[in-house]
Design brief:
alpha+beta
Length: 649
């Protein structure tokens, strides 16, 4: 979401009277050269009358006829700067000040040249100018801290450009980049849908557009996301969940607004988006709230706000959705993420472990740069690291997005500055793509599993809860719902983790699935349809997340996730009776396998009783190797035969 800041134009020259030529200039001209003095006086009279164009023409004549004079260049630079011609102003200041001796009277001119040089990435010129300013300016001059900070930026930028990180981002090909402005790109976890903000013309408002991936991997023609979303109001800076079913976006000046720009939420069922709802006062403030980023499951939201109580002009906040579906009061991320400057455009990677954002409050390339930090613990982040050049440049960077697999990145940026462009906001903004260098990648790479959830009996799609747990911490890390119309779901999984995934719906047996990426084996996306059995006599499920050491029957600690899910299931359906059955492969003697399967089933039975499930509702039995579900011909099949089942009696 873009805001307009009106900055008053100030002309820095003596309005109350003419500026005389310096002693050095008069010495250059000689006391008899009245032509130069006349042109100088004429230019100043034109400038005083606010006829800047004619004044610049007159000063140009002075530059041509008396090229050794520095003052005409500097005055022309100040006029060009007042007119918004920053490129030409930079050139004039640079050319003029090199012709003049270093003196205290020029201190503000050195600072101005430094600021202009930073605007165009002329870091050596900027550094030289800031040093001259600090050398000549009076003590405690108000611009001194900024000059010192900009010197650090110059040093950083020159080193970064000498050792680039990756290659230059390239504009995305058509049919993308067809609008006047396009920015804030985000993708679904499977990269099938690209969402971004677009403004077809300079006069039009912001809307959200979606481009769908074609079979050949190219992106299709962008279309308006939905008439339920895009209205006569501004809609921009959208965020979408990994499954593409939850959308949060910023919109300004709506009748339901809490502040001037608020965050709204919409959910998709089938191909239909719901009417957007204001996220309310727990999230929105009376100030500007925008630039959202959603976690993969759509239940954690990061965003930018100018509300009171922050550390700087803009700060990054976060909120989470509780079990009842309500958003918790937004909290400031604090240091080291937020600074005294502008901290904006957060992007949380699909893995949930790495945050990217832009700020001008840290040493960088001179403007808004993109930084990366990792989550160390709840509400604790690592020191932000600048992503370096060329992802950061002398321009203000707008935002960054990196795909779940850490391979492809997207950003938006202005075209290169050209002479004659009056206002930065008038430059077209395009979408760019790049291959993600190692140093820029998120701490953890993600993949996904997606498919559809069906009724095992009718084969019709159903709405189900799909929950993902980290087995090593027993933490619920994702919670999504399958689509009520088509049963679709998408869940993001991180490399190096071991997960239990559960699909459940009212009056159905839960489905237990296991994903082990702890040894970083094959990490490709999975397509996995899930069929849920009705809670009915004779129906059974395999409990895939109960773990035992070889030839042992004591449950390992990471079984607690599955065991607690079983307890909850038994409490949800207090009238059912179940059998817990143990099964083995054919390795070992029949008698040993029978005893082992019996003891393992009993271990589960004992745990359920310890958690308050009545013994009258339970029975356990070991079947040894007598009921394999696959031939015992491979390690994978034997592993599947070693199992615990739950059967409704």
């Amino acid at each position: 979401m873009r805001r307009s800041f009106v900055v008053p134009v100030v002309l820095l020259f003596a309005v109350g009277g003419l500026v005389p030529l310096s002693a050095a200039a008069q010495a250059q001209l000689g006391t008899t050269n009245t032509k130069a003095r006349n042109l100088w006086d004429k230019a100043q009279q034109q400038a005083k009358a606010r006829d800047f164009t004619k004044a610049i023409e007159t000063l140009g004549q002075l530059n041509q006829k008396f090229p050794s004079l520095g003052e005409p260049y500097v005055l022309k630079g100040s006029l060009l700067k007042a007119m918004g011609e920053n490129q030409l102003a930079f050139e004039s200041y640079r050319d003029g000040l090199t012709k003049l001796p270093v003196e205290a009277a020029r201190a503000n001119d050195y600072f101005t040249l430094g600021e202009l040089a930073m605007t165009f990435g002329e870091y050596q010129t900027a550094a030289d100018s800031y040093r001259k300013y600090l050398k000549t300016a009076a003590k405690n001059q108000r611009n001194a801290p900024r000059a010192q900070r900009q010197l650090l930026n110059c040093e950083f930028a020159q080193k970064a450009m000498a050792k680039p990180t990756g290659i230059q981002p390239e504009p995305l090909p058509q049919p993308l980049n067809t609008f006047r402005f396009q920015y804030f790109p985000v993708l679904t976890a499977d990269s099938r849908f690209l969402l971004y903000t677009g403004r077809p013309t300079a006069e039009s408002g912001e809307d959200l557009f979606v481009s769908r991936q074609n079979k050949d991997g190219t992106m299709g023609e962008p279309v308006s996301i939905s008439p339920a979303i895009n209205t006569s109001y501004n809609e921009g800076a959208g965020a979408i969940s990994g499954d593409g079913k939850t959308l949060v976006f910023a919109s300004c000046d709506r009748p339901s607004s809490v502040g001037n720009c608020d965050l709204y939420i919409s959910r998709r069922t089938g191909n239909t988006w719901s009417k957007p709802q204001n996220l309310g006062r727990n999230v929105n403030s009376p100030e500007w709230d925008s630039q959202p980023s959603l976690s993969a499951d759509g239940r954690t939201l990061y965003f930018t706000s100018t509300r009171r109580g922050g550390k700087g002009q803009e700060d990054i906040y976060m909120t989470t959705q509780d079990v009842a579906g309500n958003w918790t009061p937004a909290r400031n991320l604090g240091a080291p993420v937020n600074t005294s400057g502008k901290d904006m455009a957060p992007f949380i990677h699909a893995s949930g472990t790495t945050l990217y954002y832009v700020t001008d409050g840290l040493v960088g390339m001179g403007g808004l740069d993109v930084y990366r930090c990792e989550q160390l613990a709840a509400d604790k982040w690592s020191i932000p690291q600048n992503l370096g050049y060329p992802l950061n440049t002398y321009e203000n960077e707008a935002s960054l997005y990196i795909t779940s697999d850490n391979r492809r990145g997207f950003c938006s940026r202005s075209k290169a500055t050209v002479s004659g462009v009056k206002q930065e906001r008038d430059r077209p903004v395009e979408l760019f793509g790049f291959e993600v260098p190692k140093e820029v990648r998120a701490r953890e790479t993600s993949t996904y599993t997606q498919g559809r959830v069906f009724d095992a009996f009718t084969k019709k799609p159903i709405r189900a809860d799909v929950q993902l747990y980290d087995l090593n911490t027993d933490e619920l890390v994702q919670y999504v719902g399958s689509d009520a119309e088509n049963g679709e779901y998408t869940v993001v999984l991180n490399e190096g983790r071991q997960y239990a995934m559960y699909a459940s719906a009212d009056k159905y047996l839960m489905r237990s699935l296991s994903f082990d990426y702890s040894d970083k084996r094959s990490f490709d996306p999975l397509t996995l349809d899930i069929y849920l059995e009705p809670v009915r006599s004779g129906r059974s499920i395999v409990l895939n997340n109960l773990f035992f050491d070889s030839k042992e029957f004591a449950l390992k600690p990471k079984s607690r996730t599955e065991l607690n899910r079983l307890v909850s299931f038994m409490k949800q359906y207090p009238d059912i009776l179940v059998e817990i059955s143990g099964h083995t492969d054919d390795v070992g003697s029949d008698d040993d396998n029978l005893v082992l399967s019996q003891n393992r089933a009993k271990s589960v039975y004992t745990y359920l009783i310890s958690q308050g499930v009545k013994a009258q509702r339970l029975r356990f039995k070991g079947y040894g190797e007598t009921k394999p579900i696959n031939p015992n011909d491979t390690d994978e099949h034997r592993q599947q035969n070693r199992r615990i089942e739950l059967r409704i009696l």
